[in-house]
Design goal:
Blueprint: E1 3-6, E2 16-22, E3 29-30, E4 35-40, E5 45-49, E6 54-59, E7 66-68, E8 72-76, H1 89-111, H2 125-139, H3 147-152, H4 178-186, H5 205-222, H6 254-269, E9 272-280, H7 282-290, H8 292-297, H9 304-318, E10 324-327, E11 332-335, E12 341-343, E13 345-347, E14 350-352, E15 355-356, H10 364-379, E16 393-397, E17 416-420, E18 424-430, E19 433-447, H11 453-468, H12 471-475
Parallel strand pairs: 12-16, 16-17
Antiparallel strand pairs: 1-8, 2-4, 2-7, 3-6, 4-5, 6-8, 9-19, 10-11, 12-15, 13-14, 17-19, 18-19
Helix pairs in contact: 9-10, 9-11
């Protein structure tokens, strides 16, 4: 007995991903929950565990190729006891129950006299016309069935699109109940193009939904990312660069495409202002170097980012608007009572932002260890989707690369982000003379719909003072 393992749901609004690595081969014996595939989505890379156990008879997923939710990954023939093992029987029974009830209802309807079969309520002009034609045919001695079947008999009104491999062909009757055909019609899906996974190739509601999601995903991926606009507001076409020399085109995929979409949305949605300041980090930097080995022994690395992750919860508690999101549709601010801070990590695939949760409840040592682990896994494509969601504020530290300052873009739906540049020694006037001090450039971008300029300046100054005078954190009870 062969069992197909299909790509399961990967997360909210994620319909497909690129196969990075196939972790099993034909002939391998696998167990339930064993990772069989590594896939990269628009947000992260993750390992996909199998829901079946047995011997791998066929591997359909291909490395470097896209794979959509619902597509077959593996075909498993038999387990150790001679039959393929799936998830617990109660789960399988629950999953099969709706289909069994549908089959039973269909059999009952077919067994009933035609005069007793009630037509389902018609909701559209198209179905009303189909029903009328069906009645006219019945009056002429033809068999009158449901309006859905009458609609199928009118190919001029529902010409099929190019059929997918393995889909139901033609415009005649399809193996689907009236309710399934009605669902397909309501969401704009040609039921003839849907591949049935039910008994005998029967099309279920889930088949229609999976096909509709795939159509939407394909349409979104084929749509170009909006670029410059012309005088009329439409997309401004690019010039033919090949006129001036050799060029090479590279498709935006995965994380890079999602980053482009998110940044465009944030820039178009959020009226952003950036505030700049400098913190004298001479003393805290000396302490950082003094206790670096102690933190390393605990599995972390004591960086300025880790220290800021401990400083920022106090600032967010003192200035709660920076830990909020704007619900423009309802004219409300959503204040968050938690403190989850995202940290931008530079990877070979683009920028990823894993989240350190409950920074206000953790020590600098704990934060340092967690940050080191998350950053490493982000670079090695091991960070999970859940670990990149739920942030209420973000830090972007480019100090390790260089630069004197930059303007980070707010990570919507958050309302603020802190940028950190490279610290450097500068002459500072103190007690009637210039003294060398290590100064840390900070830049705070924020949503001006929510945060006023004065509050932005106060927030950033508070952060600077907390770095310069750590006792301030204890003094204010944060």
């Amino acid at each position: 007995m062969a069992t197909e393992f299909k790509l399961p749901e990967l997360g909210e609004n994620i319909e497909r991903g690129n196969v990075v690595r196939v972790m099993v081969s034909v002939g391998d014996t696998i167990e339930v929950e064993q990772p069989v595939l590594e896939i990269e989505t628009d947000k992260a890379s993750l390992e996909v565990p199998s829901s079946v156990a047995g011997r791998v008879a066929e591997v359909r997923a291909q490395e470097g190729k896209p794979l959509s939710v619902g597509e077959v990954v593996l075909v498993v023939e038999s387990g150790a006891d001679g039959s393929a093992k799936e998830k617990p029987a109660d789960e399988a029974k629950a999953a099969a129950k709706p289909e069994a009830e549908e089959e039973k209802a269909k059999a009952t309807a077919e067994a009933a006299p035609k005069s007793e079969v009630k037509q389902e309520p018609e909701e559209t002009e198209e179905t009303a016309e189909a029903s009328s034609e069906a009645k006219e045919k019945a009056g002429a001695g033809e068999s009158a069935e449901s309006a859905d079947d009458a609609e199928q008999a009118r190919p001029e009104e529902a010409p099929p699109a190019a059929a997918r491999p393995g889909s139901t062909q033609g415009v005649g009757p399809v193996p689907a109940s009236p309710s399934v055909r009605r669902l397909a019609r309501e969401i704009g899906v040609d039921v003839h193009q849907v591949t049935g996974t039910g008994q005998g190739g029967r099309i279920t509601e889930e088949d229609v939904k999976v096909y509709a999601r795939q159509l939407n995903t394909d349409a979104a991926r084929s749509a170009p990312i909006a670029s410059a606009t012309g005088p009329s507001g439409g997309a401004q076409p690019l010039p033919d660069f090949s006129r001036w020399g050799q060029i090479e085109r590279s498709e935006l995929t995965g994380v890079r495409r999602r980053t482009a979409e998110n940044m465009r949305h944030a820039w178009q949605t959020v009226p952003q202002v950036t505030q700049f300041d400098k913190a004298d980090c001479t003393d805290v930097d000396r302490l950082r170097k003094q206790y670096a080995k102690q933190v390393e022994a605990a599995g972390g690395k004591l960086t300025m980012t880790a220290i800021l992750l401990k400083v920022l919860p106090g600032a967010l508690r003192k200035f709660p608007r920076f830990n909020a999101s704007l619900d423009a549709a309802n004219n409300e601010l959503i204040y968050k009572k938690y403190c989850h801070i995202g940290v931008a990590v530079d990877t070979d695939r683009g920028l990823l932002v894993p989240v350190i949760r409950d920074c206000d409840k953790k020590s600098i040592v704990e934060i340092s260890a967690e940050l080191t682990d998350l950053a490493e896994r982000a670079r090695n494509r091991k960070v999970t989707l859940d670990e990149m969601q739920g942030g209420s504020f973000t830090i972007s530290n480019l100090g390790g690369i260089g630069g004197t300052g930059f303007t980070p873009i707010v990570n919507w739906p958050e309302v603020a982000i802190l940028g950190v540049a490279r610290s450097q020694t500068e002459p500072v006037w103190r007690d009637g003379q210039f003294v060398p001090r290590t100064m840390l450039p900070l830049s705070l971008s924020y949503d001006h719909r929510v945060i006023d300029g004065a509050d932005g300046a106060r927030f950033l100054r508070w952060v600077c003072q907390a770095i310069e005078q750590p006792f301030l954190l204890m003094l204010e009870g944060v």
